[in-house]
UniProtKB/TrEMBL annotation:
Native species: Minwuia thermotolerans
GO MF term list: branched-chain-amino-acid transaminase activity
Enzyme Commission code: 2.6.1.42
Protein name: Probable branched-chain-amino-acid aminotransferase
Pfam families reported for this sequence: Aminotran_4 (PF01063)
Catalytic activity line of the entry: L-leucine + 2-oxoglutarate = 4-methyl-2-oxopentanoate + L-glutamate; L-valine + 2-oxoglutarate = 3-methyl-2-oxobutanoate + L-glutamate; L-isoleucine + 2-oxoglutarate = (S)-3-methyl-2-oxopentanoate + L-glutamate
Example of a GO biological process term: branched-chain amino acid biosynthetic process
Amino acid sequence: MRETDADNPFAKGCGFQDGVYKPIHEVTVSVLDWGFNKSDVTYDVVHVKDGAFFRLGHHLDRFRASMKGLRMSIPYSREEIAEILTECVRKAGLRDAYVAMVTTRGVPAPGTPRKPSLIENRFIAYAVPWVDVISPEIQERGAHLIIARTPRIPSASVDPTIKNYHWGDMIRALFEAEDAGADTAVLLDAEGHVTEGPGFNVFAVIDGVVVSPDRGALEGITRRSVLDLCAELGIPAEIRALTADELREADEVFTSTTAGGVMPCSRVDGRIMGNDRPGPISLKLKEEYWRRHGEGWDTTPVAY
């Protein structure tokens, strides 16, 4: 007999902590953990769509590289992390899921020197129902972006290629967007170049060329997927410096993220692009991205 959500304690999400699988609401982080009180943490997120992980290997490699960059280590191999993530999805019974792996600095032992190298790092994984950074309804009509006044945290201070929770600048930008009646925001660096937005990479289509910023941004797995699709479809693409004016005057703008895929925009700082709907190149890439998902492009099926 098939288990129902009411019968499954993991139906709202499953977490893994201290070697134990738990319902998501039982997964906690100590207030003494430097991951909580100092944002000394790294993480990665991979999605499951129609019962299969997308580009799981890429996410695992980036997660391990991020841990190395922050001088963190956990007692799990790449293969063991993959199995833990799979088991979280399996226990939750989710066909479409947002799946995270997190390493915090940990809790300093009482009486020890204030040295991060002495702290035992903590690993947490969890799977919850699918999350969209930008809702499907907004994606349909095209997201309205603003270019935030708040500058991006300098890369020399916080490496944006290491996925992190240093979101002070992002939260301020989201408030700016909310106050302006927009859906979300993108941030500039100190020199006025476009970087990224809260949880997504950004692209501009300029004279038929897809352009993505070369600085201040996470090297997104979905961003990489978009560039791969551009190469396959014969769409010119560049990674280069992108100015605020270029973004405002672009023919099209779209964003990309694990939690939503390719997400078209229709306005930047109030300027309407095209007919106030997603542009043709944005739509083509979005459609191809999800079509390739359906064909099993770089997927890892979950054995439920």
